[in-house]
Amino acid sequence: MSDKPTIWRALDRKAMAVAEFTLRQQRKRLSTWVVMGVGFLAMAVLTMFYIDSMMRDYDAIDNDGDSSDFDMDGYPNGQEVLYGTDILDPDSHPGLLNPSIPPDDPSKWINEDDFDIESLASGSYGYDDDGDCRTEEKTASQQDTNSNNIPCDVRITEPSYYNGFSTAILSDRGVDEDPDDDAYAKESIHRAFVLALGKFGFVFLIGIFVPLFMATGLVRDEMTSGTMHYMLSKPIARSEVFLYRILGFLGLAWPYMTGMVVLAALVTGFFGPSDGFFRFSDLGVWMAVLLASLLAVLVYAMLFCLLGVLWKHGIILALPFAAWELGMILTTLGAPDAAILRFSVIGWAMNIVDAGAALAWTDTSLLIELGLWGGGSNNAEPLTGSLALQIFASDSGLGLTPLVTIVVSICVMLFQAATCWFVGGALFKSKEID
Amino acid sequence: MMPDPTQQGKAETKEWKPDVDMPVVYFQGVSKSYGRIHALSNITLGLSGGVTGILGMNGAGKSTMFKLIMGKLKPSAGEVRLFGTDPWKNPAPYVKVGFVPEHEKMHDWMTALDFVSTFARLHGMTRDHAEKEAIRVLDFVGLSDVVNKQIGQFSKGMRQRTKIAHALVNDPELIILDEPLQGCDPLARTTVMNVIRELGKMGRTVLVSSHILSEIERITEQIIILHQGKLVALGNLHAIRERLDEIPHTIRIVGDDARSLAKDILDHPAVFGLSFPSNTELLIQTYHFGSLHSELPKLIVKNGHRVTLIDNPDDDLESLLGHLTGGGA
Amino acid sequence: MDVAWGSDSGDELELTDSSAQTAKSGEIFEQKYTSWNGTLNPRWMRNWAILRHHLLGIFKKGHRPWSMPTRIFLLIAFIGALSDAAFTLLSGLLGSAEFHALFGVSRDNLYGHILGFFPRNVLFYPLVAALLVGSVISEDRQHGTSALYFSRPVSRFDYIGMKYLSVALIQSLVILFTYMLYFMAEILAFGRGWSWMVDVFPMFLAGFIAGIILIITYTSIGLALSSVSQGKFFPGIGLVAILFGSKTLAAIVKNLFEREILYLLSPYDCVAHVGQAIIGTQQTYDQYPWTYSLVALVAMNAVALYILASRVSSMEVTRE
After folding, report:
1. Can you tell me the distance from the alpha carbon of A367 to that of C151, in angstroms, rounded to the nearest whole number?
2. Residue in B243, C71, A252, A417 with CA at minimum distance from that of residue C79
């Protein structure tokens, strides 16, 4: 009290008073806890499916079929190819060579040649881990079936898509043809889950429904019940009331959101595939998810509160808007550069998440392409997890570098929030209150 | 009990100086209509100092008038001035105003202390200062022993007093109370009335609305009567009555011996009729209400009559309004 | 003077005096009870009055005041739901077989009219249900108008039953009535004879039953939410959150982990699965039989109705 009263200090005190009041009001409501509890449960259910999928072993598939033994001589086909014996002749196998080679366990010829491709840029990649291409038994043309004059490599040309499968990856026969299915599935399902939980769980479901439940009535409920009179008969501008009520709501919603994201980051960090005990490489994505969901909550809270002020039946405007946002988040998955996304909130939030993912995982699109390619055998199915990752991962649609995308999207979302506050404050100001 | 007005810690949102030449509340040709319904029509008045009662039936426009003063509504025509400033879209004058709304709904989950101190902080007080002030005003309205109880557990009178405390916390110069006595039991009513009278004695401008004349009479003599959105009368209650002298009034006296009292009163020139509904009851008809009323106690005391009740059956708002608007009571 | 006009309280005297006159101590009023011999209207008639009050409120004033936006949205949803009927008529006029294959009555299109996800079960039916249940009980509780019902010879279960029925009937106006109009449009536009009708009727009936299941499910969940809350916004948002939230969660799990089990928690998907089975269209859920979905639906409705019944029977009739 000894300090000199200034305008700023007074504003600060009012802000604290209204925000604290709102926070306590929300805390006293049962529905707040029900909504938050249900949100937590929903995310927990999702996470349980995730943990289950991380704990189980994905069947190691023999993608190139060389673990089978066509001629039943005890030597898997792969081993016979390696030593140049006839895979169809039981009297021709490496055991007859000099020196005699003992037969391999067939499981050695499953997942024996993992991907060694570093980038999707055009060029020559790959290494024949199991040696069934490099073997001296093969002629030069047999070692260069993709005819780029480099023996035993994988050639990548500019990606083009046909039926969702990439035709741009062409390998020499026997190179990188039998990847580690379990490792691939876990890595890609892990990434797909982080993106799905971040985008649909946090930014969309919680980001929309928590403000929808709690912020739509922030000003409107008080206006209807008449309790707004107490606040409005004090020397405080109405747009300040609007803002500080939102601040109070954020005082509850932001820590909740942060807690959930941190929890999710911890769980996925410990259960996700990694060399150490914790998967630190995802933290960048989680930061982006956190940022996007906090901003989304801010913008939606402002918007729904504004709709509540605008009209007694603001919910009727808010529900179709939520449906619109659902359509927009689905659009970001397939067409992240669609211009219509600029007219949504979620489109910008998705830009932040996608840009964060692009920064933290530089090889996601490579991972998807390789999974769809699956080793290049004739009947190769896409590897488990590649389709899921393809659905949930997308490029940020602005065509800018990730950092710039994040900065631009943050600015746009802050601008959206500010506009909603401005309009909401102005509407509230000119509202007659009975 | 009220605080030192030069206290610290009260910052105003902006540099705002009330216009000293203007009355505290000033209406110039103010009308307010909702569609085709005229809630207030062409009101002009200025108010400063003392307790003023606003009387009117339900729907006469009392609350509308208060909401215009508080900037909750925008006048359809005319000008409203609060300390010389237009209150619509301008919360600056509320630094000096306390408002008790008519709504019964309160934040039931708060304690009285929280309620008062939270809203006190909207005046720019610090938390500690607001709490100190809240305790002071809650003490002033006689709730010092329940400050930490939840408002949801309060009786109606306690809730009204909490609302008044909330309005007083900034030591306002103008206090507006919309139907503060509604729903109070007689005990709470007396307490609330005492509080209002106390405020009047402190030199504040107090506006109290009610639809019950006798309530207002016990608080103040300065009244405004609204009827169907029109200003019917303004000024001292007695003066208004004096104006209505030609209209017959009835005074009812209950005492031990009505007939002997009647003998003494019969001589008074203002009396034109007497009747006895029962042995202990006397009804006096008079054309000159004021003069009879001022002499009646003297007459009774001089002749040593025992009287238990002096009453004015016509003296309700309905009959007064009836006279004022020209119809029969 | 002071007693009559002063500002000190003087009325205490009056109080004691008047009370002394009226009530002498120890007097007991004579009390007589007479039984009521009148006849009450039959129960269905009283219930019909409640139902009528709610239904007619959609169309005209003087009955239950459904809010204007709700009524406007009902109209929009009604017109939106009729789009396939309009296209059928159009294809009849144009005589284009391709057009008819796209929009005319067929197994898939009958399914689609009731259970198609977009736009019908995103924009129309759930939002209609949400807007209807949003106020139907909670507003009565908030305004204290439920006391108006309970002070009359109407049992609580009749009251809640009629509310349920009226909400369901208004929804069936948007879902089932348009379904019938769609069927009529086909008959009209292509001059379908009895043989066609007999052929298609089982399909039509199956779609109708699926529609009834959809309406019952949405109404049960919505009214249960409406009975637990006092807020104006909560039940509507809650219903939409349950429908969309469970659907989104299940879709994420399906796409990520190739498990469909969570669809059993999503009301829309359960109805869709049962509908696909009884109408006989291509099943889109293939990890478990449709009877699982039916059991899940029965369980959902049972829980919702239990909540509704227990809340209504213990509801305090006050203005809250």
Report:
1. 69
2. C71
- Selecting from B9, B73, B91 the residue whose C-beta is nearest the C-beta of A236 gives B91
Closest chain B residue to A244 measured between Cα atoms? B122
| Bond preceding residue C119 cis, omega within 30 of 0 | yes
Contact C258/A56 with Cβ under 8 angstroms?
no
Q: Output the pTM of the full model.
A: 0.85
For residue B286, CA distances in Å to B236, B301, B319, B322 come to: 21, 20, 15, 17
Q: Which residues fall within 8 angstroms of residue A287, CB to CB, at 6 or more apart?
A: A356
Predicted ipTM beyond 0.90 = no
Q: What pLDDT score does B3 carry?
A: 38
Stretch (H or E) spanning B223: strand B222-227
Domains in chain A: boundaries: 7-58+182-429, 67-108, 116-176
Is residue B237 within 8 A of residue C4, CB to CB? The reply is no
Q: Which of B186, B217, B308 sits opposite C5 (nearest CB)?
A: B217
Contact between residue A190 and residue A267 where contact means Cβ atoms under 8 Å apart: no
For chains A and C, CB pairs below 8 A equal 89
Burial, A170: exposed, middle or buried (Cβ in 10 Å; 0-12, 13-18, 19+)? middle
Q: What is the largest CA-CA distance in chain B?
A: 69
Mean pLDDT, rounded, for B206-229 = 86
Quote the pLDDT of residue A69: 83
A345, A293 contact by CB (below 8 A): no
Q: Is C127–A319 a contact, with Cβ atoms under 8 angstroms apart?
A: yes
- Element at A4 (helix H, strand E): none
What do you get for the CA distance between the two ends of chain B, in Å?
44
Which amino acid, A43? M
Q: Do C257 and A45 touch (CB under 8 A)?
A: no
Compute the distance between CA of residue C238 and CA of residue C232 in angstroms, rounded to an integer. Answer: 11
What is the average pLDDT score of chain A? 86
Please give the structure tokens belonging to residue C49. Answer: 């009055």
- Express each pLDDT in A37-49 by its tens digit: 999 999 999 999 9
Q: Name the phi and psi angles at B86, rounded to 5.
A: -75, 120
- Grade residue A138 by pLDDT with cuts at 50, 70 and 90: confident
CB atoms within 10 A of CB B37: 9
pLDDT of residue C15: 40
Q: Could you tell me the strand order of the sheet in which B249-255 lies?
A: B271-275, B281-286, B249-255, B307-311
- Tell me if residue B185 falls in helix, strand or coil: coil
Q: How many CB atoms lie within 10 A of CB C75?
A: 12
pLDDT for B36 beyond 70: yes
Q: For chain C, say whether A48 makes contact (Cβ under 8 Å).
A: no
Mean pLDDT of all residues belonging to chain B: 83
User: How high is the pLDDT of residue B4?
Assistant: 39
Instruction: Look at C253 and B295; give whichever has higher pLDDT.
Output: C253
Are the Cβ atoms of A432 and B74 closer than 8 angstroms? yes
**All chains having 3 or more CB pairs closer than 8 angstroms to chain B:** A, C
pLDDT of A228 > 80? The answer is yes
More confident residue, A288 or B264: A288
Q: For the CA atoms of chain B, what is the radius of gyration?
A: 23
What SS3 class is residue B321? helix
Percent of chain B predicted with pLDDT > 70 = 89
What mean pLDDT is predicted for residues B180-184? 82
pLDDT digits (tens, 9 = 90+) for C211-221: 999 999 999 99
Q: Which residue has the tokens 């007097």?
A: C27
B287's tokens? 């054309």
Nearest in space to A67 (alpha carbons), one of A128, A117, A146, A132:
A132
In this complex, how many residue pairs, one in chain A and one in chain B, have their CB atoms less than 8 Å apart? 112
Tokens of A22: 């709102």
In 3D space, the residue among C7, A322, C264, C280 whose CA is nearest the CA of residue B236 turns out to be C7
Q: Which two tokens stand for residue B313?
A: 């059956």
